[in-house]
Amino acid sequence: MSTSQNSSAGKKLTAIYVRQSRASTSDYSSCESQAAICFDFAKAHHWPVLDFYKDEGQSSESLDRPAFKKLAADIEAGEICRVIVYAIDRLSRRIVQLNQVFELFDKHNVELTVIKDPDYGTSAASRLASNIIAAASEFQLEMTRERMSEMRAALKAKGKRVAGRVPFGYTAAPITKMLTPHPDQAPIIRNIFKLASDGCRPSEIASTANLSKWKYHDGEVGRWTASRITKLLSNPTYAGLIRNGKETMTGEHQPIVSMKEFDTVRQNLKSRQTCKPKRNSPARTRNPFRCNLLGLLICASCNRPMSTSVSHRGPFRYNYYRCRSNAQGRPPCPGVNVSVYQLERYVCKRLGDVDDSSSAIPLEFRKRWKELDNMQQRRNLPDVICRIEFDYHGGSITIEMPDDPGSRLSPSTK
Asked: What is the DSSP letter of 151?
């Protein structure tokens, strides 16, 4: 919809604000209808319109809407003397928010015109009516939420699925949301659970799926990972259950795997889980060389994150960063590994090299970094580094840091 612009510089003009809660899929939306009515009203009163502000698909729950924020900025800039809305609830359904809007209008002497109530003004009676309307709208909104919550609880009590993303392996009916096994994806789920019940690890299943070119969502091939496999194997939907809060209950949909097989796989997954020591536990204290670059270290050969591994030699324990990822359907890079201690020691040394005139690291940061002891430096690595590329075969390391790494140092070490 076109807007009418005023050529007179410095003259205050009228603004039109429209809003609807849901984005429209049709060519003519509720916002367009509101704007047309408001434009006709402004034209009949010979009010030049600066612009119209449209928040489509924006809820009344918050004033943090793109178009409304722009409207508020133009009001504060003194460009607007009047705002036209189709109905008062287009501004907000909340009393507190509506009062904030009124305060903004009053502060900048902006007149509010409501199409559905042409006699609406800024008098005490109008303000009282607005609060009553907002209170009624807020009450209706809360009642709708309660009814929807009660309806969802009633449906779940009957084993019916309410909403949510359709799990891989199923299709959902458009209206009832009932799940039915997908003809192509359900056999893949059965194969995955069969492999898992036979003792295969999620990483091994992911490799099998990628080599077998099993299709994931939208027909994708080669996108299986160990984390995706683990997520599928942990989903009780495949055993005919639905989640109800933290509990599960029998659903109405057809299971893809038996409950016995699902329990077997769940036990296999649980048996492979390792307990993470608590922050102050002795196990953590005995291992001062934690892997501080985990998630930041990238293998330059394949551009995939490097994970960690542990080697035991008698009573000694050695930590390594290794390229062991099976992501994107590719095997890990053979032989790509480096000692955690040696790599982090080298990185710490480079960050504190004050004599390197060619370094891109700010000198002030390098000076502050060198004042830290070894333990403080290692603990600060995740905060001052964005990414590290490790080129095992080329023998090089590339460090990427934020624009102001010094601001990320722990307060106790500044």
From this structure: H
The pLDDT of residue 316: 72
Q: Where are the beta strands (DSSP E) in 26-183?
A: 49-56, 80-85, 111-114, 170-172, 179-181
The pTM of the full predicted model, rounded to 2 decimals, is 0.38
| Residue keyed to tokens 């005139």 | 357
**Separation between Cα atoms, residue 59 and residue 56, nearest integer Å:** 9
Q: How far apart are CA 177 and CA 253, in angstroms?
A: 10
Lookup: tokens for 315: 């009573």
Q: Are strands 304-305 and 297-299 parallel, antiparallel or unpaired?
A: antiparallel
Distance between CA atoms of residues 331 and 334, nearest Å = 8
Dihedral sign from CA coordinates of 118, 123, 124, 130: positive
How far is residue 402's CA from residue 387's CA, in Å, rounded to a whole number? 9
Distances (CA, A) of 362 to 240, 355, 356: 59, 12, 11
pLDDT at 295: 84
Cα separation, 142 vs 393, in Å, equals: 62
Write the burial class of residue 122 (CB in 10 Å: 0-12 exposed, 13-18 middle, 19+ buried).
middle
Give whole-number Cα distances, 274 to 13, 193, 373, in Å.
66, 22, 32
Backbone angles phi, psi at 316, to 5 degrees: -100, 150
pLDDT tens, residue by residue, 135-148: 666 677 677 777 76
Strand 316-322 relative to strand 337-339: parallel, antiparallel, unpaired?
antiparallel
β-strands 170-172, 111-114 pairing: unpaired
In this structure, what token pair is assigned to residue 135?
């209170």
Burial class of residue 290, CB neighbours in 10 A (0-12, 13-18, 19+): middle
What is the 3-state secondary structure of 350-374? HHCCCCCCCCCCCHHHHHHHHCCCH
Tokens of 175: 């209206």
Regions of the chain short of the pLDDT cut 70: 1-11, 23-28, 118-138, 141, 148-164, 244-245, 273-289, 326-329, 410-414
Dist. CA 321–CA 330, nearest whole Å: 18
